[in-house]
Amino acid sequence: MHSKKFRLVSEEQLHAVYGVPAPASLAKEADHVHEIYRPFIEHAPYAVLATSGPSGLETSPRGDPAGHLVEVLDPNTLLMPDRRGNNRIDSLRNIISDPRISLLFLIPGIGETIRVKGRAEVMIDPELLDRFALDGRKPRTVLRILVERVFFQCSRALLRSKLWDPGTHVDRTALPSPGAILSALSADEIDGARYDIELPDRLKSTLY
Question: Residues in domain Pyridoxamine 5'-phosphate oxidase N-terminal (predicted)?
């Protein structure tokens, strides 16, 4: 429908539209976890993990109390436990195939986010598993992330989205429930109503 002449296909064309980065946009990048960035990572209770593999790209939400989500082992290494989930292990399978990862850390109420790029390894070292036990439950694996790039993203996206503004929060009943989604996609083979009834207790008992 749209002419190909309007499609950008080279970095030169992109730079013609966007220009060059401001000096501050380049100065903020480090090749390790600089001490100025460390508290942002340690205060984050939530991150998005991006991976790539044979089946394509994946993004996975990761959450834990601040201080337990990720440990800064040293300026070049992060440790991230893989908590209980749905056992699809999409991200872990990707990492086994292609270790490149990217992380986006978010802190409630804070506009700036932290971006980390590097390479990850899937570890089952018993000492690491013990180290990240919560509520008496150990993670099955721990990611050891070798840091290559770290920088902060300014608050524009969060300001535009009003992400932390309670006045913009959507009532859960305005969207399909997990049970409704599963019922629709399984052609009613899964009892969605029952799934929704059982879900709160299941989440509570299987959080870790």
Answer: 37-154
For domain 9-161, give the CATH number.
2.30.110.10
Hunting for tokens 């969605």 — which residue is that?
Answer: 192
The answer to whether the CB of 120 falls within 8 A of the CB of 145 is yes
User: Whose CA is closest to 80, among 152, 31, 146, 151?
Assistant: 146
> Domain ranges in the chain?
9-161, 170-205
pTM of the model: 0.94
Q: pLDDT tens across 72-104, in order?
A: 999 999 999 999 999 999 999 999 999 999 999
> 27 CB contacts (<8 Å, ≥6 apart)?
none
Tokens coding 53? 């593999």
